[in-house]
Amino acid sequence: MTTFLAGFSLSFSLILAIGSQNAFVLKQGIKKQHVLLICTICALSDAILISLGVAGFGVIVNEYPAIEIYARYGGATFLLVYSFLSFKSAFSQNHALKPEAEVLDSTVKVVLMCLAFTWLNPHVYLDTMVLLGSISTQYDGEQLQFTLGAVSASFTFFFSLGYGARLLAPMFQNPKSWKFLEFIVGVTMLIIALTLVVL
Prior knowledge:
Elements: H1 2-16, H2 20-31, H3 35-63, H4 66-92, H5 107-119, H6 122-136, H7 143-164, H8 175-198
Helix pairs in contact: 1-6, 1-7, 2-3, 2-7, 2-8, 3-5, 3-6, 3-7, 4-8
């Protein structure tokens, strides 16, 4: 049980910080669009990466650093484009969250964006595969419990964020609140994109 809690707490602390993926989940949760699908994709992606990390795939990433470089610049490009779109929406559109008039984004579009936020983010590889993978070696013979704890943290976090976000929906019926969210999302994406390129 101690090993399970160690995996849970470490994984939860790594994904708790507001990042591009979390901002996307939060935004879709507020809009109440494809929440189950998005949370499932994010959590399952984490589960796959954590399992690979514990299984030793982190060693491969260390052996072939080009993987991280491609992910870094590809992710930065995607985040810069999304940041521009968020700023554009914040400054040029005047929309509020009105469920009866809300246009539902296509499932394919949402899935592709969610996958991009997840798999084009080099931080997710460092956190889930390299960091969690290396720490799991401290629990020799108990890696399965560690993995289950880390995976459980991902499911707990993403579903709490996605479905908890709807509590904020009434506030976002005010156009100013939505503009503020778009602006914050844009800033978040821009900062992360720049750190990926600079660091």
